[in-house]
Design a protein that fits this description.
The structure is a single chain. The chain has about 450 residues and is mainly alpha-helical. The chain contains 17 helices and no strands. The chain has one domain (about 10-445). The protein has helices spanning about 10-45, 45-55, 55-80, 85-120, 130-140, 140-155, 165-185, 190-215, 230-260, 265-280, 285-300, 305-340, 350-360, 365-380, 385-410, 410-415, 415-454.
Length: about 450
């Protein structure tokens, strides 16, 4: 089930790899969608606002876990492209050691700091207790997120984009059942929604782990492969930590924006929560493009096939432009019924606010496509620290807009993401060409010397 992205026409290769990844992201979002829909429909708008008020801090911490795991997989993709299976195995075991240490430390730290974080975010008093219960449960379950994302990252580095999807489908079905049982039968409120998500994520992680252990002869480890190597661990950290920090830095701006929206009151928090759930689902193709380009870039850099990088960019940018237009049309026609999936009938008056938020962001989806394509390709090429600077620009944009929310109100908050994407693109597009020159110039010099010698 491995897939070599260093051969064949880029567009079909990107599509064949990316479509399973897309389904994986869709089913991953299904966790959140099912939780939110059941919470909003059965427990009411206040419970929905409680879950939604934790969205930015959830993204900050869980996103950090996803980022470091994706970074740990980049050297694996490069070694796979180079055909060096021994080094590949040793990067995998190094990633295991680092995932265990970072996952345990992060879980302990966030579980202890949860109360202070929600207080600092100005969480409304009427939803505070529910918000605390929900996000504390997610934090305690962080090892499940680390397990799945690391195993899925390694599988994708080997070209296997299907196995993570298969297990996410299974986990999503389990999540639906557990939501019904925990919330509707056992009356566990928002704790039941969080617990269902964590247990389902753990199931997906264990499934991917079993596939790695049993399904890939090239990953059959010797005792020597498990010996930590300082230089490999350092390289993994150089790839993983910047990618994790990129998610977190971006999320810090989201936390500041969420804090400003919280100050507007529960009504606006609920509208933003419902709109963000719709938008996150529609943005899954952009996430799939980014994940695909990270693996595509890693394998082709490992194989020294530089010309394929530009070809892949052109193909993926075309896909991003086409889908951005489709998504905007969908929201123009169906934003209200999609939003009502997450609201009860008593919250229907929030639809104009949610529609405003959705249409403003959707009109700029192509900017988001460019962010994901170029950022993850740069990371796959081995320049993770450089890509992190784009996260700083996104944070700065959202932080700046958050300062305007008390003055200009809800409309200002709707422009936060488009401004963040625009600033990131201004940096990322030139950065890609810089990275390309850094990789290709030494090789071009050697080719010229060889020609002169002949």
């Amino acid at each position: 089930m491995t897939k070599d992205l260093t051969k064949g026409r880029p567009m079909p290769q990107i599509l064949s790899f990316g479509i399973p990844v897309l389904f994986g992201y869709l089913f991953q979002q299904l966790y959140s969608v099912v939780d939110t829909a059941i919470v909003g429909k059965t427990l009411g708008g206040a419970a929905l606002a409680a879950v939604g008020s934790t969205g930015s801090i959830n993204f900050l911490v869980v996103g950090f876990c996803c980022g470091i795991c994706a970074g740990f997989a980049i050297p694996v993709a490069q070694q796979f492209g180079a055909g060096n299976n021994q080094e590949l195995r040793r990067y995998v075991t190094g990633g295991v050691w680092l995932s265990v240490v970072i996952g345990a430390a992060l879980t302990a730290a966030m579980a202890l700091c949860c109360d202070g974080i929600l207080t600092a975010m100005n969480t409304p008093a009427d939803i505070y207790q529910r918000a605390y219960v929900y996000i504390q449960t997610i934090f305690i379950g962080l090892p499940a997120y680390v397990l799945y994302n690391f195993c899925a990252g390694v599988l994708r580095s080997l070209g296997d984009s299907r196995t993570p999807v298969i297990w996410l489908v299974a986990a999503s079905l389990v999540n639906i059942v557990l939501d019904v049982v925990f919330i509707l039968t056992f009356r566990m409120d928002v704790f039941g929604a969080a617990l269902a998500t964590v247990l389902s994520q753990a199931l997906a992680g264990v499934g991917c782990l079993i596939r790695l252990v049993r399904g890939y002869p090239i990953l059959k480890m010797d005792r020597e492969d498990w010996i930590p190597n300082r230089s490999r661990l350092g390289e993994l950290c150089l790839m993983g930590l910047p990618m994790g920090l990129q998610y977190s830095i971006t999320a810090i701006g989201s936390v500041m924006l969420q804090t400003a929206v919280n100050g507007l009151g529960t009504v606006y928090v609920t509208a933003v929560t419902a709109a963000s759930k719709v938008s996150m689902f529609l943005c899954c193709p952009f996430d799939a493009m980014g994940c695909t380009m990270a693996t595509y870039g890693g394998q082709n850099v490992g194989a020294a096939k530089w010309e394929r990088l530009h070809q892949g960019v052109r193909a993926c940018v075309t896909l991003g432009a086409i889908y951005s237009g489709i998504a905007l049309v969908v929201l123009l026609l169906f934003s209200n019924p999609l939003t009502m999936l997450f609201l009860d009938e008593g919250s229907a008056e929030l639809l104009p606010l949610a529609r405003q938020n959705l249409l403003i962001t959707a009109s700029c989806y192509f900017l988001l496509a460019l962010v994901n394509i170029f950022r993850f390709l740069i990371q796959g090429m081995g320049f993770s620290p450089l890509a992190t600077l784009a996260g700083v620009l996104e944070m700065a944009a959202r932080a700046g807009i958050s300062c305007l929310v008390p003055v200009f109100g809800f409309t200002a908050a709707c422009f936060a993401s488009p401004m963040a994407w625009l600033l990131a693109d201004v940096f990322l597009v030139p950065a890609y060409f810089y990275c390309y020159r850094r990789l290709t110039q030494p090789h071009a010099g050697r080719r010229k010397l060889a020609a002169v010698a002949r």
